[in-house]
Give the backbone structure.
Amino acid sequence: MIKRAIDGKRLFVLDTNVLMHDPTALYRFDEHDIFLPMVVLEELDRGKKGLSEVSRNVRQVSRFLDELMLQAGNSDAIAKGIQLPTVDNRDTHKAPVKTRGRLFFQTTQMTYDLPKDLPGQLADNAILSIATSLQNSYPETTVILVSKDINLRIKATVLGIHSEDYFNDKVLDDVDLLYKGSTELVADFWNDLNRLESWTKEGRTYYEVEGDVVQDWYPNQLIYSPGEGNSIEAVVHSINDSVADIKLLHDYRKDNHSVWGITARNREQNFALNLLMDPDVDFVSLLGQAGTGKTLLTLAAALTQTIEHKRYAEIIMTRVTVPVGEDIGFLPGTEEEKMTPWMGALMDNLEVLNKTDASAGEWGKQATNDLLQSRIKIRSLNFMRGRTFLNRFLIIDEAQNLTSKQMKTLITRAGPGTKIVCLGNIAQIDTPYLSETTSGLTYVVDRFKNWEHSGHITLLRGERSRLADYANENL
């Protein structure tokens, strides 16, 4: 029955980790066929218990398979391959597929003698054996092993089996294509415009520009033109085809425009503070290497708008708890106490932001510190499901370690009046099977760039210390 794939379709053998990573992978292979070895079903059964994201994904896969079994009806239909239904494949940005592939299960004993160094009782080696057996049994069919496990793909290639990573969750083909959030105007930009008008509103200067270059802009994109005489820093306020309204930015590099005592040290930090302080921007994402000021700028803006402007009721900070080294075991205390070791960056930046006058003494310093900490709540990602945050300033730190599904779960918690800020460095991903092109942070940067209430900026220069800058460049 599998020979039907010789008409240009391919047969994909799925590894367990593909389904654990994306439960909808069953529906992501368009018109091509899928083969599930029995050892994969066994591994799914062992991974179904627990409250982790992987366990939830496994249970969802089981539900999908159960629905497909009910559709098949009997064992004869299963042996012939279960017709996969047509589903909304929005994430792939492709037209709906008219003819779907089939799902085949391993219904017979399939073995192939692997080298003695690859014992068959290991799950990965059993999958290799089945893929090799399929390749030999159906030489006119293109058999492809799909796995997130690099070592398994290497072993498959050594044995002559075509293997691939699971690409459907990739947001971009290359991370260099990721939206940067800012663009430099060409030297003759103002001369090439079809129309230019300006006006002042509520103390801010606006320009309406019309030209072909405007069509490549995004809402809340930061634009700048360097130079001494005609330098400009502005944000795209609104855009309609080739016409855009741009608004000149506040200059937070000046002491009289400081945010909680913090001033921007470079152009990108000034861009970030303008987005963070804008009440019309509900979602902000900041990318940058260590020391670029992501957390410090965000906390300064959050404290100013929470304590001084009374715009938000409190600040909520969370992050995924993926250790860099060996895990230190269970942590005692409440939810907030358990999260405290993961929030060292928060505590370090609060020390910088606690600018109490020295004349107030230790009592005054402690009072200010208590006030700051009373407005900042530390929460675990594990308890976010079902919650709704009203008038909160939600900071998601180390967001590069989140999957796109986890990111969606968090952002959809936002209620009226809530602002969400995602911070991260996609070059430092600690979560297994995530990469720069599949990270949840990359996902939201790409998907939110067209929304008029979101903004993004990539911070380029480190401002921590000359030692940290040298380490980033040379280590």
Q: What stands out?
A: The radius of gyration is 27 Å. Confidence is low (pLDDT under 50) at residues 89-96, 322-328. The domain at 276-474 is CATH 3.40.50.300 (Rossmann fold).
